[in-house]
Amino acid sequence: MKFLPLIWCNLMRKKTRTALTLLSIIVAFVLFGFLSAIKQALAGGISMAGLNRLVVRHKISIIQLLPESYKARMEKIPGVSLVAHQTFFGGVYQDSRQFFMQNPVVPEEFLEMHPEFVLAPEQKTAWLQARIGAIVGRKTADRFHWKIGDKVPLLSSIWAKNDGTRTWEFEIVGIFDGRDANTDTTPFFFRYDYFDESRRSGWGKGQVGWYTIRITDPDKSAEAAKLVDAEFENSAAETKTEPEGAFVQSWAKQIGDIAMITASILGAVFFTILLVTGNTISQSVRERTGELGVLKAVGFTNGQMLALVLAESCLLSILGGVLGLGIAKLLIARGDPTSGMLPRYFFTNGDLCVGMAASVALGLVTGVFPAVQAMRLKVADALRRI
Amino acid sequence: MSGPINWLSQVVSVTKFGLLGIPQRRGSVAAAVFGIAGVVAVLVGVLSIAAGFRRAMTVSGTADSAIVLRTGADSEMMSGFGHASTRIIADAPGVARTPEGPLASSELFVIINLPKRSSNSDVNVPLRGVEQAAFPVHGQVKLVEGRAFEPGKNEVIVGVGAAREFSGMEVGGSLRVGRSDWPVVGVFSADGGVAESEIWTDAPVLQAAYNRGNSFQSVYVRLNSPEAFTTFKDAVTTDPRLSAKVMRLSEYYASQSTAVTTLITTLGVLIASLMAVGAVFGALNTMYSSVAARTREIATLRALGFGRGAVVVSVMLESIALAIGGGAFGAGLAYFVFNGFHSATMNWQSFSQITFAFAVTPQLLVLGVVLATVIGLIGGLLPAIRAARQPIASALREL
Q: Theoretical Cys-Cys bridge with B73: which of A58, A99, A230, B79, CB 3.0 to 4.6 Å?
């Protein structure tokens, strides 16, 4: 610790150079933050999936519907404790570019199935009473400035009503929050009974999009999935059951290998920063050859020399890391840059820790080469340079 | 003495000085050059994804083709027509005709799950039911292997993109639809267009498999000429028996691709601009140390009567030269690594996979080099001013 002033003075020797290096490290960590948030937004739904929930969809594809009557049959399967269904509504509010998901659900079982959506009890009561009532996530409510009591028309391109029109009116009776930051609060949910009665007979009546089931023992999810699929085997609508995590992950994987893309961009960024910082540190060590010789002459050990230079590079990169991650955290909290296309855009604590670890690693890697040089310095050679 | 020529020769000699000194400062120069190369490579690489996606979408629509969807539908997934409506559309004025009938194909569009070869995880793959006229209507479609499906038979042909990306989609493979296996009998290309991501089969066969009765989702038509579009559009949209909207195929595909390209472009530009800021700091560092290493040389030249302007310009030139070198390297790297790289992603409008190739276009290469030049310009400016402002006497004393 007593060498801290010495390290500080060494860094302040060329203020411009240190400041510039620090700034480029900060930029690298701001980028790290952004990319982590983007990765989280595109692929992060997996971690929010409930371990004891399975998703049952039509075997051929998610766009094929399943009979609503499957619910009763699923409830009889051993190990299944709760069954809820959803259907993709595909509605548009004002402009088709303002996408958010809307699904008809059965309120009680839906809220019981998804404790991650937090709804005030009086709003829940209101929802159970209002047939055209709908609840919406905080993010979407804020985006369209919806309040409780607002009447919201949605134009559905998939579902027509009995009278042939496609504009469905809903009343906002509740606004739900996420249990934690990872919960997607963009969807809109309304009552299935209203939906099923009002949709035009013919295609789809009495049919739902997919089921979510809760199982009593998360360790037996594979067995439960097999039982469900066996129940509907050889019927007109065969099912495919998988854990919710796998279901969400398969959507993320459809976009592409997001983890690989962000990792390769970060690789390019850190390689660049490594070059810039490493070069700065070794340049400043080279300039100080004489001084380092003096330190050695007055009795600094090899270990101390090594530590001195490494401490300098680590101080610089950790300082840059802390500032960069801090700025990233603030910027990301301001919302996603694509205005609504990335619902789960935020900086997780896990990624923050990875970032901090990366800043220490950056300091060590950039410092090690000059530090070894300083350690190996021969006093006589170094002093001759003064 | 002729002023400008003299000034120019000053610039040349100071610049030469700087450039010749590069080998002595190779560490810091390399750091700056590779830094800029990295920025340009990432920018060009990310934007080439968007460009490739857009290219796949735009080559699909020729000027004389159009698509008809139900009013209010943004994509085929959400559209629907009865058989009678599709006949009215096919017989509308403006539609090109051959002895076999109008060049109109009423189609069905569904998605099925197939494992992707690269990740072995299930993805949504578009399965399209087409009529016989589909081949002349989608003009670019050519069989490259095998044969076409036979009408009325449970057979499919697959696009080259789909054959490459999804497991089991080669001639001899088969597709499980419901409880039967449909053999793959051919592979077709479509000049890199969207159809290459799809699997095609006979429309009536698909209607039966999906209990669609005699209904379709969209009608693709080839027009007499690009100008016939207005006639066709007016006839279809004003017909009281129909509730339909008409779009040129090019406009339709453009509207389908905006979500994905906007997302990629926004994120790509954001990442690249942050990286560019970092690279500017790197370039500044390099040029400051380049100027610092030459304090005495520059002071000597100034003492001999070289002007401040010449010093500023030459330092900037050096910085820009390094930046362009780095930029060109980065752009070249991006070209060799990314251009033509095959991939597939989800198109949100159709809920299904689109296969495409990354496209490093000339515009992107130019953009990359321009960005590098800007970085070099900014990175050189402050050090250049510092070099020119150094008091000559004290700088000369610095040994």
A: B79
